[in-house]
Amino acid sequence: MAELGHDLRSLAALVELPAERDLWPGVEARLAARPDRPWLRAAVAILVAVALGIGIAFAVTPARSAILRFLGLEGVSIVRVEKLPPVRTNPAVIGTPTTLAGAEKALGFKPLLPRIGAPDALFLDPSRVAALIAYGKPLRLRLEETRLGVFQKVVDFRAHVGRVTVNADPGVWLTGTHVFDDFFSQPRLAANALIWEHDGITYRLEGRLTEDQALRIARSVPH
Amino acid sequence: MSLASGVLAAVVGRPLPEPELVVRAKAGDAAAYEELVRAHQAIAFRTAYLVAGNEADAQEAAQDGFVKAYKALGRFRAGAPFRPWLLRIVANEARNRRRSAARRQALVLRATAVAASGDAAPSPEAALVSAERARELLAAIERLGDDHRLVLACRYFLELSEEETAATLGVRRGTVKSRLARALERLRAELAEEQDG
User: Fold this and answer.
1) Kindly report the CA angle at B33 between B27 and B35, in degrees rounded to 5?
2) Pick among B36, B57, B96, B177 to test the A interface (most A CBs inside 10 A)
3) Residue A138, preceding bond cis, omega within 30 degrees?
4) Which of A74, A130, A131, B128 has CB atoms 3.0–4.6 Å from A10's, for a disulfide?
5) Is B173 on the interface with A (CB under 8 A)?
6) Which of B110, B75, B154 is nearest to A185 (CA)?
7) B189 phi/psi in degrees, rounded to 5
8) In a 3-state reduction of DSSP, which class is residue B61?
9) How far is it, in rounded angstroms, from Cα B22 to Cα A88?
């Protein structure tokens, strides 16, 4: 085995890999082309929806995986795969307990609470960029609010991905087991989830909910 | 967003350490992020190439990965290593493209390595492994499944650490170890079959 490892290390110098290229101009252009203007994203969302004639569900060729990029939720990718990747099933580390005032101070915006009664707990996520509003002990419902809505949902072909509106804002409703990946912590299995955006804040409501229940809760958030 | 004079002044003489660049980029300093991109673009592009399987998708994936990383910098824990986190995002972008993209380009040997199989003086690399052995090895690697080929490529061709390989492949470090062991085992079997055949 040692000889094989040695040969592989030597082989590395002989394999043709593409030369380094300057990626910054392309990155810079993309950053410049994506200013943080929610109204623009909303407008693009409407145009895309109209242009593609997107209905409630997305039809995806089952023979291959596909990426579904949504609709004003610029940082959110939904990737459909034939088989979900293995992930841990234990609950994620939620974060540091805080208060509404503490969360507002840390995040620069005041988290909004849905009108479903007082939450059981409020946390700042470990990277202190999101408020996690928790209901139930043990946790049965969570609402995450963040200015940095960059994450990915990986769903398989049993999952349903639908477009919804929360008040006037575009949103996505996912049912069925799927994987949530925020590119920061380990990916984890997630329950049904409703994702929407309002005024530059991305909201993600997750729990054992029906679409109607989720929409009622989302629409009760006093935007 | 060209190199801003403030950062330019700061890097003259002594480059800013990466954690400082990350802090500045998180605060919206595009010039600091440019420094980070330039520092990591080579490994990001090559990682994306190995995952996506072609240069065009790799470039798109790496650039999109850098854009996503910039937008997610607020989630990045201060003091954590930047490269594995970045590679995870870039590799994810590359995987997404690979899923719907055309056929993967096969890995090939450099022309200089192939030429070294003749009577000419061998290159320093060929002195370590013969051109014939290199061809056999690469052909055997190409016959492996994606999981095994990629873990070998990450560890040996890109020289990524276990942590970085885990981030790139989207698996735990323990999985990297076991997958690498199985890949080497499978590779030895492929080579043995080739010799017997």
Assistant:
1) 135
2) B96
3) yes
4) B128
5) no
6) B75
7) -65, -40
8) helix
9) 29
Quick count: other Cβ atoms within 10 Å of Cβ B80? 12
How far is residue A35 from each of residues A96, A171, B180, measured CA to CA in Å? 31, 20, 42
CB-based contact A10:B129 (threshold 8 Å): yes
Helix axes B30-52, B55-71, angle to 10 degrees: 140
Asked, for residue B41, whether it belongs to a domain, the answer is yes
| A46 to chain B, closest Cα gap in Å | 23
Q: What is the DSSP letter of B75?
A: G
Which ipTM was obtained for this model?
A: 0.80
> Residue A36: is it exposed, middle or buried by C-beta count within 10 angstroms (0-12/13-18/19+)?
exposed
For residue B124, how many C-alpha atoms fall within 13 Å in the half-sphere facing its CB?
A: 2
**Touching check for A66 and chain B: CB below 8 Å?**
yes
B119 lies in a domain?
no
List Cα–Cα distances, A136 to A24, A189, B89, B156, in angstroms: 46, 19, 33, 48
CA distances from A45 to A171, A221, B65, B106, B146 (A): 10, 22, 22, 38, 36
Phi and psi (nearest 5°) for B104?
A: -75, 140
Q: What is the mean pLDDT for each group of 10 consecutive residues in chain B (197 residues)?
A: 42 71 88 93 95 91 92 78 89 77 74 56 58 89 93 94 88 87 95 79
Provide the H-helix boundaries in chain B: 5-11, 18-26, 30-52, 55-71, 82-100, 111-115, 124-128, 131-143, 146-152, 162-169, 173-196
Q: Are B162 and B176 in contact (CB under 8 A)?
A: yes
* Spatial distance between the Cα atoms of B40 and B37, rounded to a whole number of angstroms: 5
Query: For residues B149 and A186, what is the distance between their CA atoms, to the nearest angstrom?
Result: 23
In this structure, is residue B14 part of a structural domain?
yes
For chain B, what is the domain count?
A: 1
Chain B contact present for A17, CB below 8 A = yes
Q: pTM here? A: 0.60
In this structure, what CATH number is given to the domain that contains residue B28? Answer: 1.10.1740.10
Domain that holds residue B28: 1-105
Contact B92 A183 (CB under 8 A): yes
Partners of residue B100 in chain A, C-beta under 8 Å: 64-67
Residues in chain A: 223
- Residue A44's identity, in one-letter code, is V
Task: Please name the amino acid found at residue B133.
Answer: R
